[in-house]
Design goal:
The chain has helices spanning 3-41, 46-82, 85-91, 96-99, 101-133, 236-245, 251-256, 261-270, 276-291, 295-307, 316-341, 347-368, and strands spanning 145-153, 158-166, 172-180, 186-190, 193-197, 200-210, 220-229. By secondary structure, it is of the alpha+beta class. It has two domains: 3-136 and 289-368, no CATH class; 157-232, no CATH class. It is elongated.
């Protein structure tokens, strides 16, 4: 790595660290003021409160990393411009693209962090945080269980009713399954427990019904101590997707519930025939998830032309610019989200339009920079 690249990275990473720390402190402080009485009522210790906020951290990172990167970039670039460092670099024969190469590397790295947070950490953080808050108010044996679940696998024409499902282990209590065989016959299964091992669902204390065994005889019934059913292809992850997506009844819920790309695809796999309203909501959520990591690169494209022009400007110009850009970006993002969920705009466009608009504007402004 060249000495110049190390210098530019240091001048960016230091304010970026301050911005991220400041956002974190502000978020925790404001949340503590709001929920402190609730924490006391729930009898949480100081360590448990710290654990709660550590679990919630991925939710915050997804939101603030692009904002902190934009603010840090504009601050760093404005500082370089004030001291004519960018002018000296360009006089030495370096193009603006080459000067900003370290910034694009940081943007790509932070895009990866946002993707990991969105896909692997944030979707479960709300659930884990809630378990911490209920640690002293819920019976330990009941933590992690969701009760009275119903869902249908439309692709395989299978209906499930589960009295209780453990989101951690995938274990079921009192599962009931009704499905259709290849020859058109119906089957029903009622068990005391169910679990998935090596890709196969196994049930204990099973009552297996054959409601249409023969036209002239009453339905047959088997009682088995244990039964493995390899044809049940539903996975615990798909069932968890069903649980979360069943909560999406409005735009407000769609914005609150964190869904990973895998969870959305799992749900669509089991439900090939979705209603237009449900399809619009899920497709918009999917493309918004796909577009979210690229926001960090769009931030770099927008910050460079705003911060690079030479002149002795006050560093607070960078702060004001970042506030304006963030407000405009999030306003357009929320507007397109509303249109996409309502079916008034194609889901692909609703998810990607803010990135396309601001990315194209950044490329155009960089090309016109002198």
């Amino acid at each position: 790595m060249r000495l110049l690249d190390r210098y530019l990275l240091r001048e960016l990473l230091i304010p970026l660290g301050y911005c991220l720390s400041g956002f974190l402190i502000f978020w925790i402080s404001s949340d503590l003021i709001t929920d402190l009485n609730e924490f006391q009522r729930e009898r949480l210790t100081g360590l448990e409160v710290a654990e709660y906020y550590l679990i919630r951290l991925p939710d915050l990172l997804v939101l603030v990393i692009p904002v902190a990167l934009l603010l840090a970039l504009l601050y760093a670039l404005t500082n370089h411009a004030r001291h004519h460092e960018l002018t000296a670099m360009r006089a030495a024969g370096l193009s603006l693209w080459r000067i900003c190469l370290p910034y694009f590397v940081v943007g790509i790295g932070l895009s990866g962090v946002v993707y990991l947070a969105n896909e692997h950490w944030a979707p479960r953080s709300e659930e884990y945080a809630e378990q911490v808050r209920q640690r002293h108010t819920t019976i330990p044996a009941e933590q992690g269980w969701k009760t009275d679940l119903n869902f249908r696998n439309d692709r395989n024409d299978r209906f499930w009713r589960i009295r209780a499902f453990n989101v951690e282990t995938g274990e079921m209590r009192e599962p009931y399954v009704e499905w259709t065989l290849a020859n058109g016959g119906r089957r029903q299964l009622l068990a005391e427990r169910g679990w998935r091992t090596n890709g196969v669902w196994t049930f204990a204390n099973v009552r297996h019904f054959f409601p249409d065994s023969t036209p002239d005889s009453p339905p047959l019934q088997q009682q088995l101590p244990e039964l493995a059913v390899p044809e049940f292809s539903e996975t615990p992850e798909q069932i968890q997707s069903e649980i979360k997506i069943s909560q999406l009844g409005s735009l407000k819920a769609a914005r609150k519930v964190q869904l990973s790309i895998r969870e959305i695809l799992n749900y669509k796999l089991l439900h090939p025939q979705l209603t237009p309203e449900k399809r619009a909501l899920l497709d918009t959520k999917l493309h918004a998830r796909l577009a979210a990591p690229w926001t960090c690169l769009v931030v770099v494209l927008m910050a460079v032309p705003f911060g690079a022009p030479s002149g002795r400007r006050n560093v607070f110009v960078g702060v004001a610019s970042s506030i304006f850009i963030c407000f405009a970006y999030f306003a357009i993002q929320q507007f397109t989200l509303v249109l996409g969920v309502a079916g008034k705009m194609p889901s692909v466009l609703a998810g990607w339009l803010p990135n396309v608009l601001f990315g194209a504007a950044g490329l155009l402004l960089i090309a016109r920079s002198r």
